[in-house]
Specification:
single chain, 457 residues, alpha/beta, GMP Synthetase, Chain A, domain 3, 3 domains, 7-stranded mixed sheet, 13 helices, globular
Length: 457
């Protein structure tokens, strides 16, 4: 069973995951051996197979270890020891095929096990025209780590249909990615919004350098601002917003305009594309509030719950908990959202990030998207700070684009026409950068800790 490890986590967390999963063998690039050495003494890994890179890229010490000296074994040399004809074992479709752990943003990372059946169905659905629409005509480049949310979806479907696959390796800066897209004539790629934000900024600086022609860009992992979609489309990109998580293998929904939505204005179309879309085939979706099911009216918010043939029903080696799964078999995603009459999901916040002010809910995502629509704003995160009267109030944390300037008053004036007065942040602070999690999302817990003194307890 294949279990990818998140190399961006702290060594103690990686060791916890290895031990909790009972991993026996490790296959590792030689450049990652220093990281492994930091936690190997905490694990019971039986054998370590090292995949050497080119000799020019390896230090003498790494080359020495990777050639089989000491506790390490050369991966290629190990493969050459195989004899006879390989006979695949008998595998039932319910048997486990892979495993991935959550990033641990709310407590310890939790393991999700995927069966062969779940991954096959998930892969077939991804190839559908109204899902990822990948075929043998495509060249795909996933700009997502395969240890994040079981990011093997694109490699699996590309292999299934015979699409050419191109991987960026460690070169994830905007210029290197754009060079790769052009040189390899990539037609489909996927990544988190922060990746595409950097791409949009690079294209704005040198639009003639990278002639992109209708490349399809899947975006997920966090909400994408409509203005970012509009900007990317100006440079020949087609943006497809999708939603999912480790527990959903990862695809849960995709935002594709329906064929009869031909009379939408550009603004309405971009707002639709910025939603998380409609549930993928075989995925059931509902919104739950304390009083029961929430209506699909595009206004009423509730917790997003899903179930389906590739949706997790439990965590590996952990007791069942009503905090994660309902008694009738639905996954509690922890996302708060609305669903409109057409079935389009719009995530308004994570439950832990929702701002509760005077008995009303304020969506940090809506405020962030609006702030990032200002021409001087590169990034923005909105968090809750304590307030004695209203319980919580919003605080905006903003990164200004190089060469631009803006005042808090100007940003609040930019927001005012689009939100009620009580929705607007009480404070705007400017920072050099916003901290991120191991998967590239804004680390709002760090911001709340940093700015908690600005609230009035």
């Amino acid at each position: 069973m294949l279990h990818t490890l998140n190399l961006r986590l702290a060594p103690d967390d990686i060791a916890y995951i290895v031990n909790h999963a009972a991993d026996r063998f490790l296959i590792v690039d030689d450049v990652l051996l220093p990281l492994f050495e930091r936690f190997r003494h905490q694990t019971k890994i039986e054998r370590v197979f090292v995949v050497p890179l080119t000799r020019a890229d390896r230090s003498a010490e790494q080359a020495h270890s990777a050639d089989g000296v000491g506790d390490y074994e050369d991966y290629e040399a190990f493969l050459r020891t195989a004899e006879g004809r390989f006979r695949p074992p008998e595998i039932r479709e319910e048997d486990p095929a892979g495993m991935c752990y959550t990033s641990g943003t709310t407590g310890r990372p939790k393991g999700v096990v995927y069966s062969h059946r779940a991954l096959v169905i998930h892969t077939l659905v991804q190839a559908m025209p109204d899902a990822l629409n990948i075929s043998h005509r495509d060249t795909t480049t996933p700009v997502v780590p395969m240890f994040h949310a079981n990011g093997w979806g694109i490699p699996y479907v590309s292999t299934l249909v015979g699409a050419k696959q191109v991987f960026p390796g460690p070169h994830l800066d905007p210029e290197s990615l754009l060079d790769l897209f052009v040189e390899e004539r990539v037609t489909f790629t996927a990544g988190v919004p922060t990746i595409w934000l950097g791409i949009a900024q690079a294209l704005a600086r040198s639009p003639e350098r990278w002639p992109l022609h209708n490349i399809r860009m899947g975006v997920g992992g966090a909400a994408v601002p409509p203005d970012l979609i509009r900007t990317l489309e100006q440079f020949g990109c087609q943006v497809m917003h999708a939603w999912g998580m480790t527990e959903t293998s990862p695809l849960g929904s995709v935002s594709v305009p329906k064929r009869y939505m031909t009379d939408l204005s550009d603004g309405e179309l971009h707002r639709l594309k910025a939603t998380q879309g409609v549930a993928a085939p075989f995925v059931e979706m509902r919104l739950m509030r304390e009083e029961g099911l929430a209506p699909w009216d595009g206004v009423t918010m509730g917790e997003v719950q899903v179930r389906g043939p590739w949706i997790a029903g439990a965590y590996h080696n952990l007791p069942a908990s009503s905090d994660h799964f309902t008694s009738d078999g639905w996954l509690r995603t922890g996302d708060i959202g609305t669903i409109d009459e057409e079935g389009y999901l719009r995530i308004t916040d994570r439950m832990k990030d929702l701002i509760k002010s005077g008995g009303e809910w304020i969506s940090s995502i809506d405020l962030e998207n609006a702030l990032m629509g200002h021409p001087a704003v590169a990034e923005a995160a909105v968090i809750a700070i304590p307030d004695p009267k209203w319980q919580e109030r919003p605080l905006a944390v903003v990164v200004v684009k190089p060469g631009h300037s803006v005042t808090p008053e100007e940003l609040l004036g930019h927001l005012a026409p689009h939100f009620p007065k009580w929705y607007l942040p009480d404070h705007v602070v400017f920072v050099e950068e916003i901290p991120r999690t191991s998967t590239g999302k804004f680390m709002k817990s760090a911001l709340r800790e940093r700015f908690r003194g600005m609230g009035r307890p």
